[in-house]
Amino acid sequence: MGNVIPYSLLSDFDINLFKAGKHYRLYNHLGSHPMKHKGKKGTYFAVWAPTAKSVSVIGDFNYWVEGEHQLNVRWDESGIWEGFIPGVEQGALYKYKIHSNNNDIKTEKADPFARYCQHPPNTASVVWDNTYKWKDKNWMDTRETKNSLDKPYSVYEVHLGSWKRTKENEFMSYVDLAEDLVKYLKEMNFTHVEFMPIMEYPYDPSWGYQLTGYFAPTSRFGKPEDFKLLVDKLHQNDIGVILDWVPSHFPEDAHGLGFFDGSSLYENPDRRRGYHPDWKSLIFNYGRNEVRAFLISNANFWLDQYHADGLRVDAVASMLYLDYSREEGEWEPNIYGNNENLEAISFIRELNQEVYSSFKGIQTIAEESTSFSMVSKPVSIGGLGFGMKWMMGWMHDTLEYFKKEPIYRMHHQNDLTFSMTYAFTENFMLPFSHDEVVYGKQSLLYKMPGDEWQRFANLRLLFGYMFTHPGTNLIFMGAEFGQSSEWNFQQ
Predict the structure, then answer these.
(1) Does the active-site annotation cover 82?
(2) At 130, is the pLDDT very low, low, confident or very high (cuts 50, 70, 90)?
(3) Which alpha helices (DSSP H) does 5-161 contain, by range?
(4) Confidence at 169, pLDDT banded by 50, 70, 90
């Protein structure tokens, strides 16, 4: 196997866009790309590591030895290292060995743009070119009419690892789910399914909300093309696909994005803005152009390569406020002296403008729990540009009301009526999500008062009220048949 051959998939124009934070299709250029070059089969690698002294590709093809395949740094000060390695083909395992100028640190990192990752707890990236022949043209051509805000949304939120298991309590594969889950959704008349994060994540108890592989569907359930098959089958059955997407924070795992090249590359270097105390995770540096391009490219990737119909953006409130979950003295006001994160707000607006202009008929949905104004209003009139916002206040008030014995409810009618004072200020989605049925909060059925018959009657009443209230609807798996136990991701 030869050494690294100088080669690039990046033009000067690509580099200028990247530096300006305006390159929204970085996945076509960075990462690993199996290809032919000068008649030789191999793989082109490119990684952004501006503080690096050297970057080597290590893998099962060179016994994980540093220096055997050292990438070349570009001359244009973009901080990108690249090169073509002959003989490295589909399925090869690899990481980047980065020797940093900063404190002379050496780290082994997974590829931020990897299309496929090893099954956790293994952490290597996999060279992969997931070609797939889509059969959902009919859906994609007419999606705009089926996925618009004036159409019904009955969304089924699913955690793929625990919706159903095999008899041996093993995960079902994407291929199995393409049969069983699709059939079930069709039978139950759901219009959409929302998947809790399916991007690669190392730790099962995070439910997927601590991502390390932003461009790879998790290998727990199969190959990338198997996930495409699942989406394809859903579309063929007229069911829209919403993906949970997490641009708000990422874990500190050694192989992940944190301290990537020996510097705070993806995260904000100021711990007051770059570290999340609740989730013990790092926060993206929304003021850095290249990081914005990375995140917007990632949103585009799932809409483009995986035909997703919507992105439900996680923990938006934590992005909007500098003092989110922080005590006095643990945060610094913005230039106007208030608590809004201006860089994150401008990033969100840019994200929404880009995805709505590039993909017909998609939606973005904000999980936003505060009274921040104009979340689902167009950027052109000062809004954040989301299609919808989760109506968390309604969810909280409604559950408080329904928990009470019917005899006492007459004194708490305001819990039901208050939502109508603001129901039309945003495009709201009414969520009874996974967060309401964990950590001792009980299942929806067991939040209801009375004996078993009364509990089921109350739950039917709750859903009847929900589906007649203004807004789109989302329920978490298990709620539809009145599951008695709390959700347990392990079974």
Answers:
(1) no
(2) confident
(3) 12-20, 137-146
(4) confident
CA distances from 181 to 2, 166, 175, 178, 291 (A): 46, 13, 10, 6, 36
- Structural domain boundaries of the chain? 12-109, 137-481
Token pair of 71, please? 């990438």
Locate 152 and state its tokens: 């019904």
Mean pLDDT of the chain: 96
Q: What's the rounded Cα separation, in Å, for the pair 441 and 145?
A: 38
CB 319 within 8 A of CB 261: no
> Rounded to 5 degrees, what are φ and ψ at 363?
-135, 145
Catalytic residue among 225, 261, 309, 367: 367
Distances, alpha carbon 337 to alpha carbons 63, 189, 268, 327, in Å: 54, 50, 20, 16
State the Cα–Cα distance between residues 307 and 298, nearest whole angstrom. 13
Q: Are 423 and 415 in contact (CB under 8 A)?
A: no
| Full DSSP string of 430-486 | EEE-GGGGSTTS--HHHHS-SSHHHHHHHHHHHHHHHHHSSSEEEEETTGGGT--SP
Cβ burial, residue 54 (10 Å; 0-12/13-18/19+): middle
- What is the Cα Rg of the chain in Å? 23
Altogether, the residues listed in the chain come to a count of 491
Share of the chain above pLDDT 90, in %: 96
Pair of tokens at residue 312: 């439900």
Backbone angles phi, psi at 107, to 5 degrees: -135, 155
- The secondary structure of 275-328 as a DSSP string is EETTTTEE-B-TTSHHHHHHHHHHHHHHHHTS--SEEEETTHHHHHBTTTT--T
Distance separating alpha carbons of residues 115 and 146, to the nearest angstrom: 29
* pLDDT confidence of residue 491: 86
Residue 160 near residue 201 (C-beta atoms within 8 A):
no
Tell me if residue 367 is catalytic: yes
In angstroms, the first-to-last Cα distance of the chain is 45
* Contacts of 327 by beta carbon, 8 Å cutoff, 6+ apart: none
pLDDT at 102: 85
224-236 and 137-146 helices cross at what angle (nearest 10)? 60
In CATH, what is the architecture of 12-109? Sandwich (2.60)
What pTM value is reported for the model? 0.96
The CATH code of domain 137-481 reads: 3.20.20.80
Catalytic, out of 314, 397, 415, 426: 314
